[in-house]
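@channel sequence for tomorrow's demo:
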Amino acid sequence: MGQHALTFSELLNRLRLIGVQINTTSQSGWIYLFGKKGAAMPWTRGPVYPIKIRPDDDLIPAKMIQKIMKHLALNQDDQTQFWDATSHPQVPLQ
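structure tokens (generated this afternoon):
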């Protein structure tokens, strides 16, 4: 499907799909994304990327998403799976 801008919620959902650990600390206003390789600190799973909490529908540019994935040291298979994921609109329960 190619690389394109995603909403903030789509970005987080796709990162969860490929195994990135997401730690939300609402008090600080930041979300911490933990990569899957080589711990940066003894208690983390891998490289850490902090990102400010944004509205769910805020668009994140493809270039920023590429920077995040590079910083998290995601391999090519994970990146391919990330970009190939399909987002489906949520249907409200009745």
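heads up for whoever presents: Residues 8-17 form the longest helix (10 residues).
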